[in-house]
Amino acid sequence: MPDLGRAALIVCLGLAVYAVVAGAFAASTRRRRLAESAENAILASFLAALVASCVLLSALLRHDFSFVYVWRHTSLELPRPYTVSAFWGGQEGSLLLWLLVLTGFSAAAVLLGRRSAPSLLAWTVPVLGAVTVFFSFLLVAVASPFATQAAPADGLGLNPSLQNPYMLAHPPFLYLGFVGLTIPFAFAMGALAARRSDELWVVITRRWTLVAWMLLGFGQLLGAHWAYVEVGWGGYFAWDPVENAALMPWLAATAFLHSVMIQEKRGMLKIWNVLLVVGAFALALFGTFLTRSGILSSIHSFTESSIGPWFLGFIGVVVAGSTALILSRLPLLRSKTRLESPVSREATFLYNNLLLVAFCLTILWGVAYPILTEALRGEPVTVGPPYYNFFLKAFGLPLLILMGIGPLIAWRRASLRGLGRIFAWPLGVAVASGVLLLALGAGSSIPGLVGYTFCVFVLASIVLEFVRGTRARQALSGGSGPAAFAQLVGRNRRRYGGYVVHASIVLLAIGVIGSSAYDTTREQRLQPGESMTVRDYTLTYQGTTQERGPNAVELRALVDVERDGERLGTMRPGKNSYLAEQQVSNESAIRSDRLNGEDLFLIAEQLQPGGPVFLKALVKPLVNLIWIAGFVFVGGALIALWPDAREQRRLALRYGRAEALARA
Amino acid sequence: MIEVVLAALLAAAVVLIVAVPFLRADEPPPAAEPGQDALAAAEERDRALAELKELEFDHRTGKITDEDYRALVQPLRRRAAETLGNGASLPNETPEHPSEQHFSARSLPSSRQDR
User: Fold this and answer.
1) Which among A274, A263, A259 is positioned nearest to A193, based on CA atoms?
2) Within an 8 Å CB–CB cutoff, is residue B21 touching chain A?
C-alpha cells in the first residue's frame, strides 16, 4: 500500500499547485469557472490527504513493519490506542496529520465561504493552496511517511512518555489550533489582495480565529495535564521552548480577538489587526519549526531532521509576502476614527493588546535568544523559568486586573465620577477578600495574595456585569429573572461568552497561584515500614510490588496515606521498564481531593524491588481548578461561537444584498 | 495491482471534481464584488446604530452616569441620522424588540428621563 500513499500525496501536491496557479489567474482575470475549479481542487486535496492518512493508519494497525515509520514508532506489544496515536508520534506522521487538518479546514472554509462570502474566496483559495503546497511538498520530497524497507520481525516501539491517554488528544487539538490559524490568515490576505476595504473578512476571520484559539487553548491545557501526570516532576508547565511555541500564537490570537472588537465597533486598528492575524499564523509556523527542526532539545520535540531550513524559508516567504501586501494596501487600512479617551472600553482593549503582544514578544525572545547565541557564538545559553516568571508577573497581573476593569467601562469615554460608582462594589469585595485571606495566612506569598485579590476583583466585576445586565433586560422586556438572564446571554453571546472565558482564566490563575505559591514539598529516604509527613498527610512506605504490564514491567512502591488519623488509601508511585523501547519512565501517583481541589503528588525515585525508596511528596492546593478551567474555557468559547441568528441576518442583509446589487 | 487501481480511481475522482465547473454549458457571471463605497456606508450606518444601542444599554445598566450619557448621546444621534441617509441601497437592520424600534430613520431615541 505505500505506493497508494505516495500517489495520494503527489495528487494532493498537484491539486494544491493547481489551486494556486488557476486560483490566482482566475481571481486576476475574474474567470468564474476557473475560480470554481480552483475551489474544487481545494476540496479534492482533502480527499487525497484522507486517502494518504488511511494508508498510514491501516499500516499502523496491521503492524506492517515494511513501512519504516511503522517500524520506528510501534511494536507488536504496543497497546492498540497508542498504535493509533503513533500516527502523530513521529515527524512524518505528524506532518501528515497537519496536512489532513489543513486540507480539511480549507475544504470547510471553501464550502462555508461559498455561502457567506463568495466574492472573498477568489484570492483566499490561492493562499490556502500555497500553504498546502508547502506541507504536501515536505511530505512528498523531504519527510515521507511511506518510505519502505524489508520488514523486520518487530518495531522499535513508541517513546514511553507518549504512551499516555492524553497523547491521544493533546497533539490533535494542538494541530487543530495551529492549522486553524491558517484560515484567518488566508482570508485576511485574500481580502487585501482583492483590495477589499469592507469588514466581511473581519467577521469571517474572527470566527475562524475563535475556533482555532479555543482548540489551541484546550490542547495546551491537555498538554499541561499530560506533563503533570506523565512526566513526573510535579509541575504542569516548565516554559519549555516547545510549550512556549504553542503559547505564543495563542497570545497573538487572544490579542486579535480583543482588538477586532475595536475594529467592528469603532472602525479602528485595522492595520494592527491584520498584523496580529499574520503574526499568529507565522508564530504557529515558527512553533512547528521549533518542534520539527531538531534545533531544540525538548521532551516535546522530534529528532533532528532536514526540514528545518524548509520551514525557515517558508516562514520568511510568509512574513515577507504578507508585509509587502500590507504595505501596498495601507491606504485601504487607514482608520477614520481615533481614540477619544484613555479611559474607555477601547482604551482598555488597547492596553490589553499591548500587554499580550509584549508578553508574546518577551517569550519569543526567550526562545530565540539561545538559538541565536548558539548559532552566532557557538555557546549554548539557557533562558530558564525565572526569566519567564518575572514577565508573567509583570504582564500577567496587569492583564488580570484589566479583565476586571474592561467590561465595566463604557465605550468612547467614562468620567471619574462614573468610574467611582461602577467600581465601588467589586473593589470593596476584593479589598475585603484580601484582608480575609491575609488573616487566613495567605500573606506567606505576597504575589499570591495580590494575585488572589485581583482574581476576586475580576470575578466580582463579572458577576456584577451579569446581574446588572439581567436587571436591565428584565426592565426592558419584563419576565422572570432566569428568562431575562437567558435573553441577555442569547442576545449577545460574544460578550457574555467572553465573560465566561474570563471566569475560566480567573479559575486558571487561582489554580496556578495556589499550586505554585502555596505548595509544599518534602523528600525523604524511607525503608519499608517507615513513615514521613507532609502538611497533614502521613505517608507510610509498605514495600514494593512488581507486575508485567502489556508492554512493560511495572515496579511500584506501596505507600499508605493517612490524614488526621483517617486512612485514605494506598498510593502506588514507581517506574515502568519498557521492553521493546529499552527505556524506563517514572510513574507518579496522584490523589485528588475533590472537596478542596488539592492534590497529593508522589514520586518514587531510586526504587528497587524490596529495597528503600526516595519518596518525594508534593501537596498542591487548588491545582484541580486548572483542569476545571479548561472545561469552563471551552464552554465560554462555545457560547461566543454559537451562531447568533440576529447577527447572521444582519450580516446577510448587509453583504448578501451588496453582492446581489453588484451582480444586478 | 490493487494499489494501482485505487491510485487511478483517486486520480480520476479528483480530475472529475476539478473539471466539474467546465462541464457546465455556460460560463457563469464573474463573482460579484460589492461596491466598496456602498458597503463602507452601510457598515458605518450599522456601527452608528449599534453604538447608540450599546450606549442605551450601558446607561440602563448604570455603567454610564446621566451626565456622561447626555454628553455622548447627542453626537451619536447626529452621526446615526447622517449615516441613515448613506448606503440607502442596502437595507438596514430591522429592530426586533419594541424598545429598539425607536432606532429608525424617522425618530432617533430621545433623552431618557427615567434616570
Assistant:
1) A274
2) yes
Closest among A206, A27, A198, A34 to B34, alpha carbons compared = A198
Q: Which residues pair with A592 in a beta bridge?
A: A599
pLDDT given for residue A304 in this prediction: 58
C-alpha to C-alpha distance for A423 and A429, rounded to whole angstroms: 10
pLDDT digits (tens, 9 = 90+) for A162-182: 888 888 889 899 999 999 999
- Residue A508: CB atoms within 10 Å: 22
- Residue A26 contacts B where some CB pair is shorter than 8 Å: no
**Regions of chain B where pLDDT drops below 50:** 93-115
Rg of chain B in Å (alpha carbons): 26
* CA dist., res. A103 & res. A110, Å (int): 10
CA A388 from centre of chain: 18
Q: B31: distance to nearest CA of chain A, Å?
A: 5
Task: Give the C-alpha separation, A488 to A129, whole Å.
Answer: 41
How would you list the strands of the sheet with A589-593, edge to edge?
A520-526, A613-620, A598-605, A589-593
B75–chain A Cβ distance below 8 A for any pair: no
Closest CA to A590 of A493, A515, A663, A497: A515
Strand A531-534 relative to strand A583-587: parallel, antiparallel, unpaired?
A: unpaired
Q: Is the full-model pTM beyond 0.90?
A: no
Q: Which residue has the higher pLDDT, A652 or A73?
A: A73
Q: What average pLDDT score do residues A356-376 get? A: 91
